[in-house]
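EI: anyone free to look at a 460-residue chain?
SC: sure, send it
EI:
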Amino acid sequence: MLPTNEQKEKPTQSAKSLSNWSCGSQYSPVERFVHNAKFMSLSQFCKIKHETLCVTVATTLKFAVSKYGWFYYGCTRCSSKAPNPEKAYECSCGQNVEQPIPRYKIEIYVSNGESKYRFVFWDSECAAILGMTAEFMHNSMVENGEDDPMVYPDELEMLLNKKMAFRVKVQPTFSQASVWKLCDDEAFVKEIENDYIVEDNQSKTEYAKLVPNKENLETSAVSMLPMPGQNPRFAQLYVYDTKNEIENRMHGFRSKSGVDVNIVRKLSEMLYEHNVHAQSFRMARDRLCEEVKMSRKVDSVKDINDSKETWRLAVRIMDVWSVVNNKGIEHLEMIVMDSLGDRIQVLIRHDHLMKWKEVIKENMTCIINNGSVYNNDFQWKVCDHSKKIVLLGGTTTKAIELQNIPPKGYFFKDFGEILQGKCKTDRLEDIIGAVSEINHIQSNTPGKKVVVSVVLKDLK
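SC: here you go
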């Protein structure tokens, strides 16, 4: 589900902007955070039958890769979804949107002990943690030659392995919870956990109520300052979109002034050309963009495990073969290798053959994104890796020239090791030798193929 303007109760404060709640109020940020919400441990979410506003504590675990990717196209003013990402429209908030912009919508599994649940993180919360807008991140990927929305940028990893306090709306119909507010401040999370969330699969069932009065409506700038000798607990993060600064500033005018965007853009270009401060700013901005591009590193094959679902691999496809079972159902298997020489076996199931059969070519180099990780349970294994990769509907590949991965090669096994029983019985090995004898054995069963046996001698 994407946000609409009817969701008026949903605040815009994010993880690092809780300080403005404490201004002059007799209530702490924690009390404001839990206001009118039910305190529940994560283990109780599966028992909720109706939409419920809850406060809980959990740790972000791994991405739940959806078929829509990590962002959606929305209004430039509010977070509503655009009806068409390629067309201008007038949003229900009154904004005339010339070009919808990417906004974060990321599904993440969170955990607490043995309990796990799927949370949906929205634009403002993600931008506050990541320090950049979805539009900036998406544009950086496009400039780097990656325009597939199913490719999760490495920068999103900053959202994982964080213990946070959450204010969420649990939506049992979709088996998910929509994040309204969050905070990863350690003291804040600890206070929520100790004072509100009860362990042993129980929680306090009462709701937090704050009754406004004249006193707590007054504000004081002094209350935002830390006590002498103490560090501030909260900070506010501002994200400035320099990529579209001209359009963004002009969108701020309520009246239709008729200002020509092209004239403003030319004035901006002239400023960049002749003003030394503007030039320095542009250099710093371009350098930041380049650093973002370079930070999109790939994972090593040897590091693959089942701790996350968004592995990004740069590999060469060493070999591809088709397997047909006794029911006539076909699937593909292949072996891939990275620049370090580590190999892993890959499976393409029957229901995804049409997508991959024309894409996968032997000896090609490519980037594989979002392949699912499973235990290596192949009947016949071609490498020692304990895991295998399965290419599914959400997996993407991008052919790219990778000179640092050597071309297809073989890993020959010595005959002596085979005769001494040092090889695994479920492992397929490369061998090289001379054929010294050939025996043709005809099967007695009608319709069966001829079995041919050969005798090999090594070259020693």
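EI: Residues 276-294 form the longest helix (19 residues).
SC: 👍
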